[in-house]
Amino acid sequence: MKYLKIGIKIFAFYLMIGNALSVKANEKVTVILDWFLNSSHESLLAAKYSGAFERHHLDVELIAPADPGMPPRMVAAGKADLAISYPIQLGMMVDQSIPLIRIGTLLDTPLDTLIVGPNISEIRDLKGKKIGVSIAGDERSILSTLLENAGVKLSDVQVINVNFQLEQALLTGKVDAITGANRNYEWIDLQQRQFKGKVFYPEEYGVPICDELIFIARKDAAHDPKFKEFMLALQEGTNYLLNHHEEIYEKAAKDFPQLVSPLNKAAWIATLPRVSKNPGLLDKGKYERLYSFLRQKGVIHKNLPLSDYTIDILQ
User: Fold this and answer.
1) Of 170, 194, 193, nearest in space to 180 by CA
2) pLDDT for 8-43, tens place per residue?
3) 297 backbone dihedrals φ, ψ, rounded to 5°
4) For residues 314 and 105, what is the distance between their CA atoms, to the nearest angstrom?
5) Which of 1, 76, 183, 214 is deepest in the core (most CB within 10 A)?
6) pTM of the model
C-alpha cells in the first residue's frame, strides 16, 4: 500500500507537469485582418468556436487594422505573425523586395467586381467617366483589362482613389463606377438598397482566376511549425463551418453585434462557397498564371520564381 501511494503521488506529479506543459504549449498567433471583422473571416471564427485552434495548441488573436493598407507592412516589421492580404498586393510588395510570402489561403475564388451606376449599360460606356478604386495600383491590372476588353483605354477614364468609401462614392454620384467592391458584401448591400446599377466580374473579361484573400508571413518565419498547425486547425474549422454555419453565425453574432444585420447575414451565406476548403494547399498553376499576368501588365517587374511569393506549408 505504501508503494501504491508513492506511485500515485509520482503519477499525479507527472500529470501536473504534463498539464503545465500542455498549457505552455499553446502558442500565440496574431492575425491582422484585411478590414473590419466580417463574413470573409467566418472560417477563422469557426476554427475558434469549434475548438480547432485550442486542439492544435494555438491562442489566436484576430486584430482589425486601423489602416487597411498597413497589415502586410506590420508583418514585415515583425509586429504581427500573419496578415490577411491580397495576391496582387503581395506581388507588388515582393517586387519591392519586402520580405513577405504567402503561406495559406482564406478565400480561394475572386470577390472583386466592377459595379457601374444606372447610367452605364456596358463597360464601353465608361469612356470619359470617373471610376473609384480602393487600392491604388490594382487598376493597372484588373481595371485596365476589363476596359481593354471593351475597347477602352485606362487613359480614357478618370481613376479616383476613394479608399474604402466605394459605395458612398457611387451612391452620391462622385464616380460613375467602382472597382474593388466585393460581390459578397458591397454588391449585396447595393441590391438591398434597390440600387439599379449593374455588376461585371473581372474573371469573365480576361483577368486570371485567383485567390481573393491569403495569409502572409515574413519569409524568414514561414516555416515556423505553428503556422502549419494554424492551417490544419483552420481546415478543421472550415469543415465545421460548412456543416454548422448557422451555429457559428449565432455564436459570432453574440460576440460581435456588428454582424447582426440583414446585410451581414446574407454576406455570411454568400461567402460559404468561397471559403478555402484546404487553406494550406498551394495551387501552383493559379499563382504562375496570375504573376505572369501581373508582369505582362507592368504591375510587377521582376521575373521571380514562385518560391519567392508562396510556399506549400503542408509539405
Assistant:
1) 170
2) 444 444 444 455 444 456 899 999 999 899 999 999
3) -85, -5
4) 12
5) 214
6) 0.89
